[in-house]
Design a protein that fits this description.
alpha/beta, Rossmann fold, 11 strands
Length: about 325
C-alpha cells in the first residue's frame, strides 16, 4: 500500500506535517512512516520529552522532508507554526484491563491543551486525532476550537482507519482473498461495540452467521487482542502508526488535488443523532468534500447500529461537558 501511495504522490507539492506526541509508542513509527513520503517537505515533531533524539534519528533518513524538534510542556505552539496537517497520537496508552473510557481523564486534558495550541498557531490546518478515546477526544477538540472561534468541521478528523485495516485483514483471511484488494467500510465510532464493519456490503463475500458474529467482534475488540498479547508492555502502536500514516497520505493527496480519495473517518455530520460519526468521506482540497451515507444494513448490523447510538451520544456528550466544565 505505501509503495503505491508514495509512487502516486511524487509529483505533489510538499506540505508541513506536525506530529504531536512524536516520541511515544505510536508517534515514533508514525513519524518514520511520514518521513518517507515525498508529500512532506517538513516534519515537525513535538513531545514533552525525548523529541530531539527522535528528530535526530529520523533526520538521517535519506528522504527530502526536513525534520525539526520541539520539546517541553507548553511548547506546542512553537512546533505548530506553518503546519498544514497536524497528526495527534499524544496521550497515555492502554494497559491490560483498561478500556478506552478509562483513558478519558488524562487524555482529555492533553487533547484540550493541544487543541488550544492548534487554534493559536495553525487554525487553518487539518487536524487528525488519534488520541483515545476518539469518540470523546474529537468532540473535545471541536469544542475547544469553537470556544476560540476557529472551528471548521471540514478540517477535523477522528482517525478510525485502524478499524478498517483490521477489518480488511480479517476478512481477507476468512475469505481467502487478496488483502490488498479487499475493501470493507467500517462505520460508527472507535471503541468496542461502536465499531461496525459492514460485512453485508462486501461484493462477492459469503459469510456464515457465525462468521459474521466472530469477525464483527474481532474488529471491535482487536485492540484488546494486542494489549493481551503484549502482556502489559503496550497496546496497538505499530498497526495504529501504519493506519495513521495511511490516512495522512490519503489526506495529503486530496489536499493536493487528487480525485476520488474516499476513506472512512469520524467527522461531524447529520447522518445519525450522534454529532460525530465515522462513515465513508470523500476528501478534497479543503478537507471534507462529500460525506456519504453508509447504505442499507443487514438485520444483524441494524441491531448493532441501534445499540451503538446511545453510547456514541453519551461519549460525545462526555467530551463536550469536559470542555464546558474546564
Amino acid at each position: 500500500m505505501f509503495r503505491r501511495l508514495l509512487v502516486q504522490s511524487r509529483r505533489r507539492h510538499g506540505s508541513s506535517v506536525a506530529v504531536l506526541g512524536a516520541a511515544g509508542g505510536i508517534g515514533q513509527p508514525l513519524s518514520l512512516l511520514i518521513k518517507q513520503s515525498p508529500l512532506v517537505s517538513e516534519l515537525s515533531l513535538y513531545d514533552v520529552v525525548n523529541t530531539p533524539g527522535v528528530a535526530a534519528d529520523l533526520s538521517h533518513c535519506n528522504t527530502p522532508g526536513k525534520v525539526r524538534a520541539t520539546v517541553g510542556e507548553g511548547k506546542a505552539v512553537e512546533a505548530l507554526q506553518g503546519a498544514d496537517v497536524v497528526v495527534i497520537p499524544a496521550g497515555v496508552p492502554r494497559k491490560p484491563g483498561m478500556t478506552r473510557d478509562d483513558l478519558f481523564n488524562t487524555n482529555a486534558k492533553i487533547v484540550a491543551t493541544l487543541a488550544e495550541a492548534c487554534g493559536t498557531a495553525c487554525p487553518d490546518a487539518c487536524f487528525l486525532v488519534i488520541s483515545n478515546p476518539v469518540n470523546s477526544t474529537v468532540p473535545i477538540f471541536a469544542e475547544t476550537l469553537k470556544k476560540m472561534g476557529v472551528y471548521d468541521k471540514k478540517r477535523l478528523f477522528g482517525v478510525t482507519t485502524l478499524d478498517v485495516v483490521r477489518a480488511q485483514t480479517f476478512v481477507a483471511e476468512n475469505q481467502g482473498t487478496d488483502v490488498a484488494t479487499t475493501k470493507v467500510d467500517v462505520i460508527g465510532g472507535h471503541a468496542g461495540t461502536t465499531i461496525l464493519p459492514l460485512l453485508s456490503q462486501i461484493p462477492g463475500a459469503k459469510f456464515s452467521d457465525d462468521d459474521v458474529k466472530a469477525l464483527t467482534r474481532r474488529v471491535q475488540f482487536g485492540g484488546d487482542e494486542v494489549v493481551q498479547a503484549k502482556d502489559g508492555a503496550g497496546s496497538a502502536t505499530l498497526s495504529m502508526a501504519y493506519a495513521g500514516a495511511h490516512f495522512t497520505f490519503r489526506l495529503l493527496d486530496a489536499l493536493n488535488g487528487a480525485p476520488n480519495v474516499t476513506e472512512c473517518t469520524f467527522v461531524e455530520n447529520d447522518l445519525t443523532r450522534a454529532p460525530f460519526f465515522s462513515t465513508p468521506v470523500t476528501l478534497g482540497k479543503h478537507g471534507v468534500d462529500t460525506i456519504h451515507p453508509f447504505g442499507t444494513l443487514s438485520a444483524f448490523e441494524q441491531d448493532n447500529f441501534d445499540a451503538m447510538l446511545p453510547d456514541l451520544l453519551a461519549q460525545a456528550e462526555k467530551g463536550i461537558a469536559f470542555v464546558k466544565n474546564h
